[in-house]
Design a protein that fits this description.
The chain has 14 helices and seven strands. By secondary structure, it is an alpha+beta fold. A four-stranded mixed sheet has the order 4-1-6-5, with helices on both faces. Its cofactor is [4Fe-4S] cluster; Mg(2+).
Length: 362
């Protein structure tokens, strides 16, 4: 199958089988950009309601640039990888300030924006401006390693570069927007990681993995390193008037700009109750008594997992100071939903407001 046949079969299949998505067929480069940022490491079905809500809140790049970061993070709450939201907000300000609110059409120019790497630059410039820049994501890697019979480790830079070369060679220069979307769509709905539906594939006749029955071994990905697990103790300090203390995470830290209940990692040989009391002393400069475990929950991040133990605490002495955070604030329980929290803390806030369920501790 030559390159023209590959493109023809792929695009014909795409026209008949493409899924409906709120950003598909969109002409506004801003909305295309937002969708691509959201789709990084996020499934289409998960991103869809977030995209619709985000665009309703910030319909233009000017609205996004003028918004407070807390508003942006609140709209992103639960979607994860919050640096995407902070970078999106920062880039919107740059666009308004330096580009009159318009996304640059050039790959070399758009990739300068915060949060835009090679994949997003290729996706936005091809879909929004019909530039022949080939995208390579996990779906495209799977399609092309199977099609060309590439058995080397896809974690290696050499293999990724090889796949990028294949994609660049194959892209339909007359219709790069649909070609890129078709490649990703094919990998998502037909050329799936397990049990690919090869009989539905428009390019099956040229696929080496299909011909040699190697779709279960291609692509090859070397085993990932085992993720570390941390036990975390957090303290919920309740004042006499019932208000709770929350802290704003440092801007440059993981989950920066989000609120949390202060706490940290358990040390070896330390009881979790001691962890909570020590962490609050270090972070707030106060002495507290952790007197009851409210709940515990497990959460997995991209590079590690946690079991979080949340304890109710009473202030024994000292006035809380934001030693490890940007700001601290006393809030009513019913006000917690106004603030953007990381997902693990969000479960806790819902429990505190009487809305959520969780595994009880003691």
């Amino acid at each position: 199958m030559n390159n023209n046949d590959f493109s023809h079969h792929l695009l014909s299949w795409y026209q008949d089988h493409k899924r409906q998505m709120p950003w598909r067929g969109e002409a506004d480069p801003y909305k295309i950009w937002v969708s691509e940022i959201m789709l990084q490491q996020t499934r289409v079905d998960q991103a869809t309601p977030y995209f619709q809500n985000f665009i309703s809140l910030f319909p233009t790049v000017f609205d996004l640039a003028n918004a407070e970061q807390q508003e942006v993070l609140k709209a992103w709450e639960g979607l994860g990888y919050y640096s995407r939201a902070r970078n999106l907000h920062s880039a919107a300000k740059t666009l308004v300030q330096d580009y009159n609110g318009k996304l640059p059409e050039s790959y070399d120019e758009i990739i300068k924006l915060k949060g835009i790497g090679p994949y997003t630059a290729a996706a936005v410039t091809s879909i929004a401006f019909n530039k022949p820049n080939a995208v390579v994501d996990g779906n495209v890697i799977r399609v092309l390693t199977r099609y060309f019979g590439v058995e080397e480790d896809v974690r290696s830079t050499k293999t990724k570069n090889r796949v990028q070369d294949f994609a660049t060679e194959l892209i339909d220069e007359d219709n790069p927007a649909d070609f890129n979307q078709a490649m990703m769509e094919l990998g998502s709905v037909v050329c799936k990681p397990t049990n690919p539906e090869c009989y539905k594939c428009p390019i099956q006749s040229g696929c080496v993995a299909a011909k040699t029955a190697k779709t279960d071994t291609i692509p090859y990905k070397s085993p990932a390193k085992k993720k570390p697990h941390h036990t975390i103790g957090v303290g919920i300090i309740e004042a006499e008037d019932g208000k709770l203390l929350i802290a704003l995470r440092p801007e440059d830290a993981m989950l920066g700009g989000l609120w949390e209940f202060p706490g940290g990692k358990q040390k070896e040989g330390e009881e979790i109750q001691e962890t909570v009391e020590r962490e609050l002393a270090e972070e707030l400069g106060v002495e507290v008594k952790a007197y009851k475990e409210l709940m515990r929950l497990k959460h997995t991040y991209s590079h590690f997992s946690i079991t979080m133990h949340a304890w109710m605490c009473k202030l024994v002495s000292g006035k809380p100071q934001p030693k490890s955070s940007q700001e601290i604030r006393w809030v009513e329980r019913n006000e917690l939903e106004r603030y953007p929290f990381p997902k693990a803390n969000k479960v806790l806030t819902e429990r505190l407001m009487g809305k959520g369920q969780g595994e009880l501790g003691i």
